[in-house]
Automatic annotation (TrEMBL):
The keyword Oxidoreductase applies. It comes from Paenibacillus konkukensis. This is Oxidoreductase YcjS. One of its GO terms (molecular function) is oxidoreductase activity. Residues 154-249 form the GFO/IDH/MocA-like oxidoreductase domain. It is an enzyme of class 1 (oxidoreductase). It comes from the Bacteria.
Length: 323
């Protein structure tokens, strides 16, 4: 079955997703909406048969779509999701699902009431290495996790603003929070310390912290510490290290490295996790079988709850219990 898809947002990641979708069979990129008609039409002009619109309602009225991809900055969520839920159109939404927990929680209620197919862009779950780690963890006792998102500051203008992105932990490190939940289980308490060391002094308009570390107690009794910074001049470590009774498992974007007592194995990813996420979502839209979607909206809201609690903890200087 051929599917017509539309996009909300015309930025860097919309282009990234379009480039992947265009390589898939029976997927037609049909519509774009953006903050201006001009931007939407410019994006549409790159794809045969696509149309640009100046808003979500105009897009949904003007082109019949089977699914929509929402790729907007964290502070811009809400209107598109509400429109799609109302019309019962499945959507794939980029992480994070918002800058707070109130909006995602309210949207989730409506999504559940409609039993709408959703998928969130937590692509680390779809890595071969993650799936291998999950099967290996079945034979091991997990003690603790150490996670990292160390790098520089992305150049998109909204990222540096607390009320635009929610800050690095909510916007970026959310991938590692999600990977932690996926491999280590649910969290019960978070305690965070954030600081502003460099970026507000060297760049205009920076209101987000640029260093942070978050300690998390898990329901299993395991513990984790996830740290991030965006002060580096180049790239840094990104990943999650799992400390088990049989050695250390290091999950990164490229591979799983498993260091035992006297052995080291490295399993490199063979497939593209973003493409796997698209395939799972589009299969669900075609057939109603959602079993391949590893991050439905409902699950992503739990990841968001941890990231938002971390911000609250850093602001309050006290641990926060998760409901
Ligand atoms: N999964 C990943 O690995 C990954 C990687 C990069 C970005 N992302 C996510 O994708 C999202 C978009 O990032 P980007 O890099 O494309 O940003 P971007 O700044 O390049 O593009 C954002 C686009 O959204 C548009 N926009 C803003 N408010 C809007 C609104 N209310 N309605 C419609 N359009 C609106 C902007 O005009 C722009 O076209 C972010 O949430 C980001 O976290 C995910």
């Amino acid at each position: 079955m051929s599917l017509n898809v539309g996009f909300v947002g015309t930025g860097g990641f919309t282009r990234f997703h379009c480039n992947l979708l265009t390589q898939m069979d029976d997927v037609n990129i049909r519509a774009f909406c953006a903050t201006s008609l001009n931007k939407a039409e410019r994006a549409a002009s790159e794809w045969d048969g696509a149309q640009g619109y100046d808003g979500i309602h105009a897009m949904l009225d003007g082109t019949k779509l089977d699914a929509v991809y929402i790729c907007v900055p964290p502070m811009a969520h809400g209107e598109a999701e509400r429109a799609l839920i109302e019309r019962g159109i499945p959507f794939f939404v980029e992480k994070p699902v918002g800058i707070d927990l109130d909006l995602p929680s309210a949207l989730l209620e409506s999504i559940q009431a409609k039993k709408l197919i959703t998928s969130v862009g937590y692509h680390f779950r779809y890595m071969d290495s993650t799936q291998r780690a999950l099967s290996m963890l079945g034979e091991r006792t997990l003690g603790m996790g150490l996670g990292y998102w160390m790098g520089g500051m992305p150049r998109v203008p909204w990222w540096r603003k607390q009320d635009g992105s929610g800050g690095q932990f909510i916007e970026q490190t959310t991938h590692i929070v999600d990977l932690m939940r996926y491999t280590m289980g649910e969290a019960v308490e978070v305690y965070a310390a954030y600081g502003s060391r460099v970026m507000h002094l060297v760049e205009e308009g920076v209101t987000t912290p640029d260093v942070g570390t978050v300690t998390i107690k898990l329901a299993s009794g395991a513990v984790a510490t996830l740290s991030n910074t965006c002060i580096l001049p180049g790239g840094g470590r990104i990943g999650l290290h799992l400390y088990t009774d049989q050695g250390v498992m290091e999950l990164t974007k490229e591979s799983l490295k498993d260091t035992g007592k006297s052995t080291v194995f490295e399993y490199r990813n063979q497939t593209n996790p973003y493409a796997c996420a698209h395939e799972a979502f589009l299969h669900a839209v075609r057939t109603g079988d959602t079993s391949g979607i590893l991050s439905p909206y409902e699950d992503a809201v739990k990841t968001q709850a941890i990231a938002v609690a971390a911000l609250r903890s850093a602001q309050a200087g006290a641990p926060i219990r998760l409901a």
